[in-house]
Amino acid sequence: GNIAGIAIAVVLGGPGAIFWMWVIALIGAATGFIESTLAQIYKEPIAKGGFYGGPAYYIRYGLNNKALSVLFAILISITYGWIYNSVQ
């Protein structure tokens, strides 16, 4: 689990392993913050009171690249539909 994994990393890699865990955690937090911010900026309201949005929307409208947003949607569908299921 989380405690054993950190203990093994410190034993095998030394105390520098904790530093790199923090660095990766900060990068992951920054990525999550940016994705959440872009999702709020590029969401579109719908008539029923909800919103449409997500990565494909901010790729399409933020980068002005429809082909890349379609490619993202196709690849994420393949990944969640087949690849993740094959791991189980």
TrEMBL record:
Q: Cite the PANTHER family for this sequence.
A: AGSS FAMILY TRANSPORTER, SODIUM-ALANINE, AMINO-ACID CARRIER PROTEIN ALST
Where does it live in the cell?
Answer: Cell membrane
Q: In what way does this protein cross or attach to the membrane? A: Multi-pass membrane protein
Chain ranges passing through the membrane: 6-34, 67-84
* Taxonomic source organism: human gut metagenome
Q: Per the record, a Pfam family?
A: Na_Ala_symp
Q: Which UniProt keywords apply?
A: Cell membrane, Membrane, Transmembrane, Transmembrane helix, Transport
Q: Name one GO molecular function term.
A: amino acid:sodium symporter activity
- Please report the name of this protein according to its UniProt entry: Amino acid carrier protein
Q: Which PROSITE patterns match?
A: NA_ALANINE_SYMP
Q: Which GO terms describe its cellular component?
A: plasma membrane
